[in-house]
Amino acid sequence: MQTGTRIGIGVLVTACLFALLIFFVGIEEFLEAVTSMDPQLAAAVVSAIAVRRLFHGLIVYAAFARFEVTVSYLQAVFISASVSFAKKATPLAQLSGEPIAAGIITDAIDDTYEDSLAAISVIETVKFVPAMTVFVVGSTYFVVFPTAIPASIRPIFGLFGAVLLLVPLVGIVLWSYKDRAEAIATAAVVALANAVSVIPRVPSPNEEDIRNRISGFSSRFVDLTTNRRLVVELSILTFCTLFLTVLALWIALGAVGVAVPLPIVLFAVPFSKLASAVPSPGGVGGVEGVLVIFVTSLTAHSVEQVTTGVIISSGAAYWMTALVGGLGIAFVLPLLSSE
Question: What pTM was estimated for this model as a whole?
Answer without folding.
Answer: 0.84
